[in-house]
Write a structure and sequence with these properties.
By secondary structure, the protein is α+β, with helices and mostly antiparallel strands. Helix content is about 30%, strand content about 20%. One of its GO terms (cellular component) is nucleus.
Length: about 500
């Protein structure tokens, strides 16, 4: 292993480019194996964000080390040398040279130098794939939003859960002495019974009669999520004027029939997320529900697959075991987003890991049976408030990113101390703290209105999954072209005369 301060040979693939010397930074000891810096690939060029601003925003360890020309006499000062060309290419085209070390990428960022010490680089390490994903999001001015399902966006019930809720309310009514509370409980039970009647009709006959009008099922084909899934067609019945959808998790098993109430103003929030065909947020789901149930609930919420592409659904819908805590690192596996760039919409705070709680916008639990007027009593519905919060967070995040991080990055030189770097922008800076124990209408004795995690596992049978053997294929790997032959700028870059950087700020 190389010790910092020692010369390392730099390769792009198998092509030797020259030698660089690693210079230590405070409290870090990044080491390159076998005194070799092997560049695996060059990152995509950035449309608007300097690579240093992206890495400073997503790296947990800031600069790991600095690389500069070797002090030995064999360094080639020729302005056409491969290392000079690499530096110039990365510098002017806003790219990085990427070295793979285990599960991490080390990004070599070409830096300007006050002392004309070219080629010189700063090195950052991030999980594999995170830089490319973050670069794409930051260039598009896009953040991530993570939704809970039950009692945040929907309330769902089976026949069994309706029976349990009605039985619990009956017992409470019998022992209630306050006539006002008793009246409220009776009203709540009537709503449960009305929906139970609809669900019973649907489960037994594939139609419902509501308000003297008959509604029949429509067969909806579920998009294939992978080659390992069967084609699934579900009998679905929608009552849009009531925000009710009836579906069957397993189309072959009527006991898995579910009545789902969608939270009012969901369409308003959904429209904001994808207004004018432009994604303001990458959407994810994190729930404690069973997987088939969660996938179907999301399909009902996003039937056109506008928020999450069906090909990405299995990666973007994350199911947590009952009793475990939710985690953004678990949601963003494979380096698809950094937690600093994510806002969470959930009706509960404490189900999230402590470090993620500052990024949670807590909404009141959706209670269409206990408090049906709660969603419309306020001037702004709950999900419209969530939309406004997301809008404000996004605006504040990118304002801070542009004015504090991106703008200051252009004044940083290779020789500068890393302690003076601007701090990373974080969604949590723009979310107000929320009450962790929000209770609908202040009533601590409200009966849970939907299915809980364990019941979903017990009641809803998994669809059988067909395993299809994938034919193995061997990928053709082409070695990277030699940087010596690339048509790259031959002169050393100088920050003071770099109009592209200044124009990118406008």
């Amino acid at each position: 292993m190389n010790r910092l301060g020692f010369k390392s040979a730099v390769y792009h693939g198998n092509v030797y480019l020259g030698d660089l010397e690693a210079v230590p930074v405070k409290n870090d000891n990044l080491q390159f194996p076998n005194n070799e810096i092997r560049i695996h690939h060059i990152s995509a060029n950035s449309e608007r964000c300097h690579p240093l601003s992206v890495l400073q925003a997503i790296s947990d360890s800031s600069v790991r080390c600095k690389l500069e020309p070797s002090s030995s006499s064999d360094f080639d000062p020729n302005p056409h040398s491969a290392l000079i060309n690499l530096h110039a290419s990365c510098f002017y085209e806003l790219k990085t040279a990427v070295v793979l070390l285990g599960n991490e990428e080390v990004h070599l960022v070409a830096m300007p130098s006050k002392q004309m010490k070219f080629p010189c680089f700063w090195c950052y390490s991030v999980p594999c794939g995170l830089y490319a994903a973050s670069l794409r999001m930051l260039n598009k001015r896009c953040l991530a939003i993570v939704f809970d399902l039950d009692e945040t966006l929907i309330v769902a019930n089976t026949m069994k859960s309706f029976e349990d809720r009605i039985e619990a309310l009956t017992g409470r009514i019998e022992h209630e002495s306050d006539p006002v509370r008793e009246s409220g409980m009776i009203s709540e039970m009537k709503k449960f019974i009305e929906d139970q009647t609809l669900l019973k009709q649907y489960a037994e006959s594939d139609y419902v009669v509501d308000g003297g009008k008959m509604y029949k099922i429509q067969h909806e084909e579920v998009p294939l999520l992978s080659d390992r899934h069967y084609r699934v067609v579900r009998p679905v019945l929608r009552l849009p004027e009531k925000n009710i959808v009836l579906t069957r998790i397993n189309p072959e098993n009527r006991d898995t029939s579910v009545l789902v109430r969608l939270r009012p103003a969901w369409e308003d929030l959904k429209t904001y997320l994808t207004a004018k065909g432009r994604k303001r947020f990458e959407v994810y789901v994190c729930t404690m529900a069973e997987r088939d149930y969660a996938l179907e609930m999301w399909r009902l919420l996003d039937p056109e697959a506008r928020l999450i592409d069906s090909k990405k659904l299995l990666d973007c819908v994350v199911c947590v075991k009952s009793g475990a805590r939710k985690s953004l690192l678990n949601v963003f596996q494979n380096g698809i987003c950094h937690p600093k760039m994510a806002i969470i919409i959930d009706d509960r705070l404490k189900v999230w890991e402590d470090k993620d709680q500052p990024r949670v916008h807590v909404v009141p639990a959706f209670s269409p049976y206990f408090a049906p007027q709660a969603e419309t009593a306020n001037a702004v519905p709950v999900l419209c408030v969530a939309r406004n919060v997301a809008c404000n967070v996004r605006g504040s995040f990118f304002r801070e990113f542009d004015e504090n991080l991106l703008r200051r990055i252009y004044d940083i030189f290779y020789e500068d101390e890393i302690e003076n770097l601007p701090s990373a922008t974080d969604v949590s800076n723009y979310l107000m703290s929320e009450d962790a124990n929000i209770i609908p209408n202040g009533n601590p004795n409200v009966v849970a209105e939907g299915m809980n995690g364990p019941e979903v596992v017990q009641r809803l049978h998994n669809l059988e999954v067909k395993t299809i053997a994938n034919a193995s294929s061997t990928a053709n790997v082409t070695a990277p072209a030699s940087l010596r032959a690339a048509a790259l700028p031959s002169e050393k870059p100088i920050l003071h005369e770099n109009p592209f950087w200044r124009e990118s700020l406008s």
